[in-house]
Design a protein that fits this description.
The chain has 231 residues and is of the alpha/beta class. Helices cover 51% and strands 13% of the residues. It contains ten helices and six strands. Helix 3 links the parallel strand 3 and strand 4.
Length: 231
Amino acid sequence: MTDIRVLIADDQAAVREGLALLLDTMSGVTVVGQAADGLEAAELAAELTPDVVLMDLNMPRADGIEATSRVLAENPEIRVVVLTTYEDDKSIVGALRAGALGYLTKAATRADIERAVKAAAAGQAILDPAVQRQLLAAATAAPAAQAAPAAGAAPARSVLEPPGDDLSPREADVLRLIAAGHSNREIAKKLFVGEATVKSHINRIFTKTGCRDRAQAVQYAFTHGYAEPAN
C-alpha cells in the first residue's frame, strides 16, 4: 500500500519540523514537503500533489483559508486538514467553506493527528471535539445575533444556519453517518443498501441543506442536531 503523502504548511519553523518528525513516526505516512506561508503551500501543493496538506491558518502572504482555496482550485483531489490554535467560529466556518476536510487545534495529540490525516486521505471528515462544540455554540447564538430586516427585505440568515432541510429519516441516517466519518461504502454496509443509493441520498441531502461537500455536511450535522460532539 502506498504511503499517504503529506505537505506541512506553518509559518513557524519549529512547528513544521516538529510535525515532520511526528508524522515520520506514523506507519503509512510520508512528509513530502514543508511550506512557510500560504502562497508557498499552494505552490508546493501544485508541484508535489500530496494526498493531504496539514494547514495552519495564521500565515503570511496568504492565510490558511486563502491557501486552502488556492490548493483545491488547482487540485481538488488533495485533502486539507487545518491544524491551528484558532477555534473561533469565523475561522472554522471559513476553513470548511474553503474546502478543508478536517479541523484540529494544536492541542491535538499524535493519535488525533494520525487519525485525521488517514481519515482525510480516505475522504472522511474529522473535526476536533472542541471545534464541534464551537460550531454548536455558534449555531445556537446566531439567531439571537441577527438584526431585524428592513421592510420588504428578506430575513438575514447566518452562515451557520442553512434553510430548513426537510430530510427524510433515511437521509438523516446518512447524514449522521457522514458526520461520524464513514465513507460511502461503509454507509452502504451499515444501511444494507447499494453505494449508488447512498450517493443519491447524499445528493438530496446536499440539495436540501445547501451544502456543497461532505465537510459542509459534517458542519451542518453538528450545528443542526443530527450529530453530537464527542466527549
